[in-house]
Write a structure and sequence with these properties.
- The protein has 512 residues and is α+β, with helices and mostly antiparallel strands.
- Among the domains are: 2-66, no CATH class; 329-389, no CATH class.
- It has 17 helices and 19 strands.
- The chain has helices at residues 75-87, 89-96, 101-114, 121-127, 138-147, 150-164, 226-235, 256-264, 278-287, 327-349, 357-363, 380-389, 404-412, 415-427, 438-464, 473-481, 501-510, and strands at 2-8, 14-24, 29-40, 47-49, 69-73, 170-178, 188-191, 197-208, 214-220, 246-249, 268-272, 297-300, 303-314, 317-325, 364-369, 373-378, 393-398, 484-488, 495-496.
- A hairpin with a 2-residue loop joins strand 12 and strand 13 (303-314).
- The protein starts with a strand and ends with a helix.
Length: 512
């Protein structure tokens, strides 16, 4: 097995060695032969072969050097390039980053293909076709991230949003990404989605519900709550305008302040209403005994629930309140709630630590005396209220969706943002930020966002033919990544190694 290695000499010139690995029977361990085949031309970046040496001391030289043969992976490049062109991402990048787009796209290709950290891009780019003829080293990546300033990113977002502006609904959500850097001001201690206290930043993202493509993101302070995140978007009016957005949000974004701001800025919205709100409590109380009627059945994607819609006035504005009850969901939620009650009760009786302090405060009373010791009591009133007013119920408020079936359908389809966040963290090495400066962090997240656009488009293609049920995204990328292209110096045509059946199917699916 042979490979090429680049070594910098004392004179500053970079030499290229051909290394052939083999098993040394005498030493009983792996060994290798190394042969210098040339050096890198500083101007062109191409390999300049060594001049032929004299053979057997007779002064004879080869009349013609052997042809240079290179083998590179070409499958990943083909599929990523297709995604970049079909989504319009390539055109937007070329317009905003005329000098840096090949470097940006090479980073995106690497992340979309492997999901590995960017510092591993050196070896990968040396063996795969990219947008740069001589590959990309991690040092250039660090320089690139600092060039992707916030002003240039905002210019890109304006271009990208204009390219994707259409009459569709957009889902909005936030997620947290942990980081232990002490030099990034946004990194603050906050609670992630698993209620774990970690130093982190928050990412807000807006995604089209039809196209599923992310169109905008914003990094936020690690302490920020969902309602404050929405305020940040509303204040960023130069880019996110009411005309283009119909925001679909979960109940974490609900607050009276946010309702007022959404109406004031003339946004179309649909958002879940938490049961801490008087609006939700009164709605459930009103329809608790009458909602389970065949007149109120709502069917969405084969799933049947009960639902009613009520037109209300809120601060002089029209507000459609959609109230739903799912009896099947209620049974499951009741079972899960009772299980949590039981396990928490046992833990408290044994004086064990319970992570969910709010749950304990709400549903238990703990008394400790010197004589009787520790006594744990259930809060029966709070438990009864939860089972009666929350389990199986869901309330949604909207200022533009009148129909209860349409409202529930649109709300359930907003999981495109959650799926995007899942890809961001699990597919593209974003569970933790490995950067130590604000500028690098902004550039790193921007590269991840661009990569996410490509990954979502590829996933959509796989879903259309139901391949996602048979293969994972990474299995498809690994399979097409094995496709090799052979280039022979002086030959106009490239050769491709024999393809597998699955590779042929992938190429046919993506029109490669």
């Amino acid at each position: 097995m042979s490979s090429q290695v680049k070594v910098k000499g004392k004179n500053g010139r970079i030499y290229v060695y051909e290394v052939e690995s083999f098993w040394n029977k005498e030493k009983k361990k792996p060994d290798s032969h190394r042969k210098c085949i040339g050096h890198i031309d500083e101007r062109t970046g191409e390999i300049v072969p060594n001049r032929p040496r004299a053979k057997n001391g007779n002064g004879l030289r080869q009349s013609k050097p052997e042809s240079q043969i290179t083998v590179t992976g070409s499958g990943s490049f083909s599929i990523v390039d297709k995604a970049a062109r079909e989504t319009g991402l390539m055109d937007c990048l070329k317009k905003v980053f005329p000098n840096h787009w090949p470097y940006i796209m090479t980073c995106c290709e690497f992340l979309a293909s492997t999901g590995d950290p960017l510092y591993l891009i050196d070896r990968w780019s040396a063996h795969n076709e990219t947008y740069l003829p001589n590959g990309l080293i991690s040092q250039r990546v660090s320089e690139l991230l600092q060039c992707l300033t916030l002003s240039k990113q905002q210019e890109f977002f304006r271009t990208w949003i204009a390219h994707n502006e259409s009459k569709e609904y957009f889902a909005l959500d936030i997620t947290s990404v942990s980081s232990y850097s002490e030099f990034i001001s946004m990194v603050k201690y906050g609670y992630n989605r698993d209620h774990e206290p970690l130093p982190q930043i928050n990412l807000l993202m807006i995604t089209g519900q039809k196209s599923k493509l992310p169109i905008y993101f914003m990094p936020l302070d690690g302490k920020i709550k969902d309602v404050k995140a929405l305020k940040s978007v509303l204040e960023n009016q130069t880019m996110i305008t009411p005309k283009m957005l119909s925001l679909i949000m979960d109940k974490g974004f609900f607050s009276l302040y946010n309702l007022e701001a959404l109406y004031k800025d003339h946004f179309h919205f649909a958002l879940g209403v938490p049961f801490t709100s008087k609006i939700a409590k009164e709605a459930v109380e009103k329809y608790r005994d009458t909602i389970e009627s065949h007149y109120n059945v709502v069917s969405v994607a084969g799933d049947e629930v009960y639902g009613v819609t009520e037109l209300q006035k809120w601060e002089g504005h029209r507000l459609y309140l959609h109230i739903y009850f799912d009896s099947d969901k209620a049974a499951g939620e009741k079972k899960a709630f009772n299980h949590k009650l039981h396990t928490t009760y046992q833990a408290l009786c044994n004086d064990e630590k319970v992570n969910d302090e709010k749950f304990v405060e709400t549903y238990f009373t703990i008394k400790e005396t010197k004589v009787r010791g520790r006594k744990v009591l259930y809060n029966d009133a709070a438990i009864e209220s939860h089972l009666k007013n929350r389990v199986g119920w869901f309330v949604m408020a909207s200022n533009f969706i009148k129909d209860k079936t349409e409202a529930l359908t649109i709300y359930r389809e907003k999981d495109c943002v959650e799926k995007s966040f899942d890809d961001l963290k699990n597919q593209m090495d974003m569970k933790r930020l490995r950067v130590h400066s604000e500028e690098t962090m902004n550039g790193r997240i921007f590269i991840q966002f661009l990569t996410l656009i490509l990954v979502v488009w590829i996933r959509q293609k796989l879903s259309e033919v139901k391949w996602s049920n048979k293969y994972s995204y990474q299995e498809i990328m690994n399979e097409i990544g094995e496709l090799k292209k052979i280039s022979v110096e002086g030959k106009r045509k490239n050769l491709t190694l024999q393809t597998t059946s699955l590779q042929n199917q992938i190429m046919e699916l993506f029109g490669l």
